[in-house]
Amino acid sequence: MADMDKLSTPGLIAADDGTRHCAWRAAMPDYHDEEWGRPVTDDSRLFEKICLEGFQSGLAWITILRKREQFRAAFDGFDFHRVARYGDADIARLLADVGIVRNRAKIVSTINNARRACELVDETGSLARWLWQFEPAADTRPALITFDYLQANTISPASEALSKSLKKRGWSFVGPTTMYALMQAVGMVNDHVSGCVCRSAVQQAREQLERHCID
């Protein structure tokens, strides 16, 4: 972790060049700067995010991030059409794969969720289009995102609604806290702390996203 004297305000840390960032950037700089909060509209990437957020439950995100390439290799790039066809032999293969988190319930959940994703796409045409309808309205979000706000708000009405809807469709490991983390990761909300240099870039990307064209 960075020295405490580099902390400027709660939740922010000053880099050597004087720019300020979310404090957790110290552990995952590339993920913070280039990925977290940037809008994701590709179905396979969204499915990957859902699965990895589920695997993260009870673990540190950095643990999952360090294993992400192994997860991608093990689950055929999170192509949910392929994962949906997995059977007992694949479960055994995955349980023997030391490169991933070998949790049987989470592995089985990923296969189940792949089948549910296929059903959803068959019904609606796009996983992205369906998921992005749960993006919260701008007037329900605070003008300032502070460290205290993020500490106190690990779920939201939108994440609760998304979680409830997915569970009704048979998805698993999609609780409201996990779904709020998903919304943060894929840019449905911008939870870079106010003052973070990445916040404006993420906001610009969100403003440029043509939501009606998501397919």
Task: Summarize the structure in words.
It is a single chain. With 215 residues, this protein is mostly helical. 52% of the residues lie in helices and 3% in strands. It contains 12 helices and 2 strands, in the order E-E-H-H-H-H-H-H-H-H-H-H-H-H. It has a two-stranded antiparallel ribbon. Strand 1 (12-14) and strand 2 (20-22) form a beta hairpin. The radius of gyration is 18 Å and the shape is globular. The model is unreliable at 1-7 (pLDDT under 50).
SSE inventory with pairings:
Elements: E1 12-14, E2 20-22, H1 29-34, H2 43-56, H3 61-66, H4 68-74, H5 80-83, H6 88-95, H7 104-124, H8 127-132, H9 147-152, H10 157-168, H11 176-185, H12 197-208
Antiparallel strand pairs: 1-2
Helix pairs in contact: 2-7, 2-11, 10-11
Give the proportion of residues in helices: 40-55%
Strand content: under 5%
Count of β-strands:
2
- For the largest sheet, list the strands in their spatial order: 1-2
Mean pLDDT: 94
User: Strand count, sense and closure of the main sheet?
Assistant: 2 strands, antiparallel
**Class derived from helix and strand content:** mainly alpha
From the spread of the alpha carbons, the general shape counts as: globular
Terminal-residue CA separation:
40 Å
**Which consecutive residue ranges, at least 5 long each, have pLDDT under 50?**
1-7
Gyration radius, rounded: 18 Å
From N to C, what is the helix and strand string? EEHHHHHHHHHHHH
Multimer state: single chain
What is the count of helical runs? 12
